[in-house]
């Protein structure tokens, strides 16, 4: 089983950007956590991050036929991008949305997720371990 883990804008600044919200762990720490968990649950995980919306769209579209599932943290594009919603719908690759913080506890504009409609589930507010939960959930769904 092959999962694509996609991260949107500013996640490369984990550990620096608003540690009171996102914690002190770095993006490198996140990648190591995902890689270790992927090995534990016997899946292959490819991790990517970009600050560019179009590249995320390209990656989502390119996942069709190459990956069994996507874990997607669209970051700020969560609240603005119909393009990501359309890409997930078009790719038809099972996708779980993940967020480090709890969007329900954030500013009103951050409570809206355009991409959620196309996702099987959303994991939010669980810090970096939310990625692991999203991976487990995808594996469970794909194994049905």
Features:
alpha/beta, five-stranded parallel β-sheet, 5 strands, 18% strand, 144 residues, Rossmann fold
Can you identify the CATH superfamily?
A: Dehydroquinase, class II
At CATH level 3, the topology is: Rossmann fold
For the record, the CATH architecture stands as 3-Layer(aba) Sandwich
Query: Quaternary arrangement of the chains shown?
Result: single chain
- Secondary-structure-based class equals alpha/beta
Query: Order of strands side by side in the largest beta sheet?
Result: 2-1-3-4-5
Helix content: 25-40%
Strand content: 15-25%
Low-confidence spans: pLDDT under 50, at least 5 residues? none
Q: C-alpha Rg, in Å?
A: 14 Å
Number of helices: 5
Return the CATH class. Answer: Alpha Beta
Largest sheet: 5 strands, parallel
Mean pLDDT: 95
Q: What order do the helices and strands follow?
A: EHHEHEHEEH
How many extended strands? 5
Number of domain modules: 1
Distance between the termini: 13 Å
Task: Tell me what you see in this structure.
This protein has 144 residues and is of the alpha/beta class. The chain has one domain (2-142): Rossmann fold (3-Layer(aba) Sandwich), CATH 3.40.50. It is built from five helices and five strands. It has helices spanning 19-22, 27-40, 53-63, 82-91, 129-142, and strands at residues 2-7, 44-49, 69-73, 95-99, 121-124. It has a five-stranded parallel sheet with strand order 2-1-3-4-5, with helices on both faces. Helix 2 runs parallel beside helix 5 and helix 3 (53-63) packs parallel to helix 4. It is globular and about 35 Å long. The two termini are 13 Å apart. 35% of the residues are buried. The model has no long low-confidence stretch (mean pLDDT 95).
């Amino acid at each position: 089983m092959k999962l694509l883990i996609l991260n949107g804008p500013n996640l490369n600044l984990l550990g620096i950007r608003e540690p009171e919200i996102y914690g002190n762990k770095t993006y490198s720490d996140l990648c190591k956590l995902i890689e270790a968990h992927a090995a534990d649950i016997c899946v292959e995980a490819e991790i990517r991050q970009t600050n560019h919306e179009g590249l995320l769209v390209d990656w989502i579209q390119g996942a069709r036929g190459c990956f069994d599932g996507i874990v997607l943290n669209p970051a700020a594009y969560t609240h603005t991008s119909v393009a990501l919603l359309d890409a997930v719908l078009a790719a038809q690759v099972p996708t779980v949305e993940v967020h480090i913080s709890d969007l329900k506890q954030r500013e009103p504009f951050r409570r809206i997720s355009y991409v959620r409609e196309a996702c099987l589930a959303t994991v939010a507010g669980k810090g970096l371990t939310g990625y692991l939960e999203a991976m487990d959930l995808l594996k469970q769904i794909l194994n049905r």
